[in-house]
From TrEMBL:
Protein name: non-specific serine/threonine protein kinase
Protein function: May be involved in plant defense signaling.
Keyword DNA-binding: no
EC number from the UniProt entry: 2.7.11.1
Subcellular localization: Cell membrane
Binding site for ATP: 118
One of the record's GO cellular component terms: plasma membrane
Phylogenetic placement of the source organism: Eukaryota, Viridiplantae, Streptophyta, Embryophyta, Tracheophyta
Swiss-Prot/TrEMBL keywords: ATP-binding, Cell membrane, Kinase, Membrane, Nucleotide-binding, Serine/threonine-protein kinase, Transferase
Record-linked InterPro entries: Kinase-like_dom_sf, Plant_Ser_Thr_Prot_Kinase, Prot_kinase_dom, Protein_kinase_ATP_BS, Ser-Thr/Tyr_kinase_cat_dom, Ser/Thr_kinase_AS
Amino acid sequence: MGICFSVEGAGVRQKGGDGDGVTNNGERIRIVSNNKSASSPTKPDINAVVIKLKDVEDFRQEAGNCDVNIFSYSEMRAATRNFRPDQILGEGGFGTVYKGVIDENIRPGFKSTQVAVKELNPEGFQGDREWLAEVNYLGHFSHPNLVKLIGYCCEDHHRLLVYEYMACGSLEKHLFRIHILALGVCLTMPWSTRMKIALGAAKGLAFLHGAERPVIYRDFKTSNILLDVDYNAKLSDFGLAKEGPMGDQTHVSTRVMGTYGYAAPEYVMTGHLTARSDVYGYGVVLLEMLIGRRAMDKSRPSREHNLVEWARPLLIHNRKLLKIVDPRTEGQYTVKTIQKVANLAYQCLSQNPKGRPTMSQVVEMLESLQDLPENREDPLLGSGNGIAVTLYEVPKAAGGCPAERGEQRQVDNRGTKIVKARSRSEPPSVYEHYSPSPDLDGAPMLVMSSSTRIGSEKSAADEVDVHSH
């Protein structure tokens, strides 16, 4: 899916590690378009020792070290109804993800469980290396804000991963695809839910950074943050995860891989990876939740294509800040709260890695905001499971949501309030449709674009190579 670019001679030079390639003319960079948390998020509650695996054969010999189920390919076929097209949840660089059910009919004694089965596409841009990384990390780590790996299949050339099913999909879906109900209203994620997700995702990253051997996630973005039925955030897709520096090391040197728009600038320029690289990616996601725009959006005026470059300077100017905050959340927060969140995003996006907070500090900051009234979930606005959604009336004379024409109508059980939206922070004029909760499955979907991936070896779809010297 999407468009792939490759950039040659980007001036990236580093020593190789774990088989990472080094070239004399620089790094080859490929860009592809495309629960309740623990009280101490920075200290793992397990003493996991992640074993380095060189290849699949090495993995098969060490397979007993992972506390996950090993499934046969025939069991995977049965769980997904022979990989029926109507069971597809999504597709990406790894391959196709199917919804499935594993019960005692498939494996005797197995409690009936809804699962998501991810099948590696041999022609895709991820391969055994990324598949092994997922099993290696998720097979040893356990945390409320990491998606649970139930099992895997490694039979002949087949590579599949079996995860817990995340009923509400990705954060990306809820932020950037608007579902218009037959009742004439649009649903969007309210401020309190955004802050709940921001805190949960931060705890997931803080857990990884605080492990005995720190783990750098390396691909933090909205599409990798999955939501369960109660909108608890869980990190998924550990294919690019990397062990962090230890002892006197200040960084690890590696190939530049990640997603364009989310990767830290110093990492892209030097290949030096630290936990603060993840903090930058977190800042980008926090900015997306704050403003309601994608990290990269070529449909905007040229100066607004890159969200960080355009918005970060405005975050510390109160008047300008209030003009760029997502208008769909108007009236759901206080100015003081929005300023604190904006300041946190500003710090996370510092060009100087040492100027960024640690993820444990981010968690502390967000936890201090959870007690504020505007960040508490309102049961009157529940969507059936205690999670709020904000409803906007769709204008009868014009298509799309009211934010397109400069006004929005916030509807709740306590009355109706009309507020003016600001043109500079309006959502895109073309909306993508999505199903915001399990109760709304079957809604039409239109996927306009996908993220841009850096450092992949192959692309999963149409490619255009652009060389820069």
